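Bump. Still looking for Uridine phosphorylase 2 isoform X8 structure tokens.
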Amino acid sequence: MGIPSISIMLHGLIKLLYYAKCYDVTIIRIGTSGGIGIEPGSVVITDTAVDSFFKPQFEQIILDTVVTQSTELDKELAEELLNCSKEIPDFPTLIGHTMCTYDFYEGQGRLDGALCSFSNEKKLDYLQRAYKTGNRNIEMESSVFAAMCGLCGLKAAVVCVTLLNRLECDQINSPHEVLLEYQQRPQKLISIFIKKCLRRYNPK
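Sorry for the wait, here they are.
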């Protein structure tokens, strides 16, 4: 969970792909997120991961140098996934920016952590500015995922369902059975995409 964990996982995975001599690889991260100005249960396909300043970049300290990497994701893949969503009319799916943070509480503008150094008004102002710049959800992995996949020449996408609208609340209030159904939505979308890919390579 978070940038350090997915970074470690990606290093291992990408090395395995290299030694296995895999090619034409597509990697898709699916998960959950907090929505910004959209209804809970919406599925967001990320076109660009942005940092807490709404910049499309991932900053990493390597030795004593700050290295900045692009966090643009594959636009054609995002559009293809959006087209696949038309086969599932049960829930809204959209393309938007995803804000990636290092922290679950103050870093995402939550008021309900052990520490909070800002008011509800400042929180709402920040999240509304995020919405105006194209951000539709918040999570904690997309920036390093986009950066590493881009550096390694891997086609990649991020598809996350939103569990709440952060402009309305900080806590998840939906019943357990509703959340379970929400979590299956990215899986349903990606399963349709995988089936289309299999038909493409095996038309018979």
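The first strand starts at residue 26 and ends at 35.

Edit: fixed formatting.
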